[in-house]
Specification:
By secondary structure, this protein is of the alpha/beta class. It has helices at about 45-65, 100-110, 140-145, 160-170, 180-195, 200-220, 240-250, 265-270, 290-295, 305, 315-320, 325-335; strands at about 75-80, 85-90, 95, 115-120, 150-155, 175, 225-230, 235, 255, 260-265, 275-280, 310-315. It has a four-stranded parallel β-sheet, sandwiched between helices. The longest helix is centred in the first third of the chain and has 23 residues, at about 45-65. The radius of gyration is 24 Å and the shape is globular. The two termini are about 25 Å apart.
């Protein structure tokens, strides 16, 4: 797991989040010719004309449906989430991603063939395994510079030191820090613009929006149970983070009362008595998070424990602010409302 503003140092957990958002394509259907017929037209001519009009309508609709967003015009100047402006003279040809979420975004928008360096936690998609590694939580700045990148994708909260050093080398760093599902979609769209892959970015965003709409529609009129999230032994997430919002979208109420990612008070969770406990997958068995839940004697009185409402979800899709956040949202909705998502 790789969390923004994470208050703990468990290396295996720090697997990033990643941004960019909703692009709605405007479709205009072309009008076809007049239906007026002259008195000299024969029935066969009329049929041919009608067939031609139908074909023209279909062609116009197909052209509109497949219409691509305008190509990026360079030089392009954009401002990132650190309020820093970067200017690209042309579409980037050598991209380095220093957090897993940005690796996933680059591949999802169709720029994966230009990625020349990734962090060691980037395990998706599988093509990332064969790309040069530039460090883990501590980026190897010299290695990154040696790859001669014209664009570096980073996280404001996870890569602050590396970002400063890379900018001192006059390298283009686009750093993001999305705190909502919509902000993640915005980031994806913006990276699509930066890399001149807007069409693919729009498709990714449209899928994310469709998943969100489906989940919201299904949970709209159902009771919202109290839910507790534990994504590292002893740690949860509260207000101000995208995962808290996702829990709400998925039809639950977060019992965490703190802000951001923080170490929780076990007695407070007992008092809040969640009906469902969601915990993430772990890098080894047995799952340390589940073992911790079962090892807290007082938690035997929590409804979720008594009723065996302890649900494991895949860690990476839910905690990385990239295209698979839609999968994480669906997993969370299924965990909270299994009867609605068969």
């Amino acid at each position: 797991m790789y969390m923004n503003s994470t208050p703990f140092n468990t290396k295996r957990l720090l697997k990033q989040l990643g941004l960019l958002a909703a692009a709605l394509m405007l479709a205009l259907l072309a009008a076809c010719g007049s239906d007026e017929k002259t008195t000299s037209e024969k029935p066969q001519d009329e049929q041919q004309q009608q067939q031609q009009q139908t074909e023209e309508k279909n062609a116009a609709a197909e052209q509109t449906d497949s219409e691509q967003p305008a190509a990026t015009v360079y030089p392009l100047t954009v401002k990132d989430d650190s309020c820093t402006e970067i200017t690209l003279e042309k579409a980037p040809e050598r991209i380095v991603t220093i957090v897993p979420s940005e690796t996933e975004v680059a591949f999802a928008v169709g720029a994966g063939d230009r990625v020349v360096g990734v962090d060691s936690y980037s395990n998706y998609p599988e093509q990332a395994a064969s790309i040069d590694k530039i460090g883990d939580m501590t980026s190897d700045v010299e290695k990154i510079a040696s790859l001669k990148p014209d664009l570096i994708l980073a996280s404001v909260s996870m890569n602050s030191q590396a970002i400063e050093q890379l900018r001192q080398l006059k390298l283009n760093v686009y750093a993001s820090d999305p705190k909502t599902y919509a902000a993640v979609m915005d980031k994806i769209r913006r990276i699509g613009e930066i890399t001149d892959t807007q069409q693919k970015a729009s498709e990714v965003v449209a899928h994310m929006q469709q998943v969100k709409d489906e989940v919201e529609a299904k949970v709209k009129d159902v009771a919202k149970p109290n839910v507790f999230l534990e994504f590292s032994p002893g740690y949860t997430v509260g207000k101000g983070e995208f995962l808290d919002e996702l829990l709400t979208i998925a039809g639950g109420q977060n019992v965490a009362t703190g802000k951001g990612w923080y170490e929780f008070d076990a007695e407070q969770i007992v008092a809040n008595n969640p009906a469902v406990i969601v915990y993430s997958s772990w890098y080894e068995e047995p799952n340390a998070i589940l073992e911790g839940i079962k090892g807290r004697p007082a938690w035997k009185e929590i409804d979720a424990v008594k009723n065996n409402k302890l649900v494991e979800v895949a860690q990476d899709p839910l905690v990385r602010v990239g295209p698979r956040l839609a999968d994480g949202l669906m997993d969370l909705a299924k965990a909270i409302h299994p009867d609605l998502f068969q």
